[in-house]
Amino acid sequence: MKLKLLLFAGLAEHFGSPVLELDIEQDGLTPQELKALLAARYPAASDVLKQAFVAVNQQYADDAARITGQDEVALIPPVSGGEPEPYTITRDPIRADEVTAKVLHPDHGATLAFVGTTREFTHGKRTTMLEYEAYEPMALKTMRQIGDELSARWPGTRLAITHRLGTVPVGETSVVIAVSSPHRDSAYEASRYAIERLKQIVPIWKKEIWEDGSEWKGHQQGPWNPAAGLPQEGETRA
């Protein structure tokens, strides 16, 4: 059975497309079977799939519904008013307190926010502004990957990232990475990991604009290999 699945909002960003074309061996399946199939094929999206609803022919489907290849099927994320999206790309000024609020938890005793701003002088050269560009669907997907990596390394840790695109004048914020954890040692370690991992794998590029020219900057962490993870504690990388 061939099934065309419509995706919206954060779900479309998770899967990198607003439409999925699925080849399914069985002739029909229930909404729960569809979500289980998607979770098996896209394990990084398993958490968001748990919150999603299935709509069949523009109606919310109950667990007994039977989906066929002739149906119009959509996967519906929680509508406005649900949990705030922890990973965001914006062209507007960023408020650090709004990003931090996304990770607050009554069981967490430590909350940290890394705030990256445009500095005026770098190696003695005066910067007038920075300009950021991104491959947005992939950037959001890799931010979520970082969140999954943090959850695996420091269970229970929460992460939120907001990154600004376009021009960012001196003194204004380009990125906020907020982390919360039950204990401060995990929060510090997870925050540092998230910052370095963002530089390594998230497809966002920075142009430094000076009084007399400009230049696109890479991640400046040695040979670029986004498929490699960060070193474990005590390890070094060539």
Description:
The protein has 238 residues and is α+β, with helices and mostly antiparallel strands. The chain is built from six helices and 14 strands. It has a five-stranded mixed β-sheet. Strands 8, 9, 11, 13 and 14 form a five-stranded antiparallel β-sheet that branches. Strand 13 (204-210) and strand 14 form a beta hairpin.
Compact description:
With 238 residues, the protein is an alpha+beta fold.
Terminal-residue CA separation = 49 Å
Strand content: 25-35%
> Average pLDDT, to the nearest integer?
86
Rg calculated over all Cα atoms? 21 Å
The ordered string of helix (H) and strand (E) elements is: EHEHHEEEEHEEEHEEEHEE
Largest sheet: 5 strands, mixed
Outline type: elongated
- DSSP summary: helix tally: 6
What multimeric state do the chains show? single chain
Helical fraction: 25-40%
Strand order of the largest sheet: 2-1-5-3-4
- Structural class determined from secondary elements: alpha+beta
Region (Disordered): 215-238
Protein name: Molybdopterin converting factor subunit 1
InterPro entries: Beta-grasp_dom_sf (IPR012675), MoaE_sf (IPR036563), Mopterin_biosynth_MoaE (IPR003448), Mopterin_synth/thiamin_S_b (IPR016155), ThiS/MoaD-like (IPR003749)
